[in-house]
Specification:
Helix content: 25-40%
Largest sheet: 6 strands, mixed
Number of helices: 5
Strand order of the largest sheet: 8-6-2-3-5-9
Shape: globular
Structural class: alpha/beta
Low-confidence stretches: none
Order of helices and strands: HEHEEEHHEEEEHEE
Mean pLDDT: 96
Strand content: 25-35%
Radius of gyration: 14 Å
């Protein structure tokens, strides 16, 4: 059901035809990159956190890792990832397919600076065997993001 909800959301935005489904898993950055046929850093992974009792999603490049100090400076709390059950309950998608499309009401979405170096990125689409090809401006327009943040480390500019 998560896939259908995310796909319907993207259909309303005029981007549903970009959604790809695979015969293989795309549940991790490495698997998604292989399924899509791109470099792992171009996968827009969605990280799920709990902040003040609500779900916060941060989309980051596949090669980026959360920097706890930057995260705490931005969100004024320690980074606490959601458990798989919390992801399903609070976000509306399951681990491996979490994306900002068709999420539950009240979920906050942020985009990490690590994504800005690519013209095209590939976030999941609600299932562990899907992705959608989007330009960064398209990701901005359809993700419902609140702002760009700089909370990751480990990535290199291109």
């Amino acid at each position: 059901m998560s896939f259908e909800k995310a796909k319907a959301y993207l259909d309303k935005k005029g981007l549903g035809e970009r959604v790809q489904t695979f015969e293989v898993s795309s549940a991790t950055v490495e698997l998604a990159a292989k399924a899509v046929g791109c470099e792992p850093e171009r996968i827009a992974k969605t990280l799920s956190f709990l902040v003040d009792g609500k779900a916060v999603l941060i989309l980051a490049a596949g090669d980026a890792k959360v920097d706890n100090h930057k995260y705490k400076e931005t969100f004024h709390t320690k980074a606490k990832m959601l458990s798989p059950d919390q992801v399903t309950e609070l976000v509306g998608h399951q681990i491996g397919g979490v994306c900002p499309f068709g999420v539950n009401e009240g979920v906050e979405v942020y985009l990490d600076e690590s994504l800005k170096r690519f013209p095209v990125v590939y976030p999941a689409c609600g299932s562990p065997n899907s992705a959608v090809k989007l330009t960064v401006p398209e990701l901005e327009s359809c993700s419902g993001y609140l702002s760009w943040v700089d909370v990751c480390k480990g990535w290199q500019p291109v």
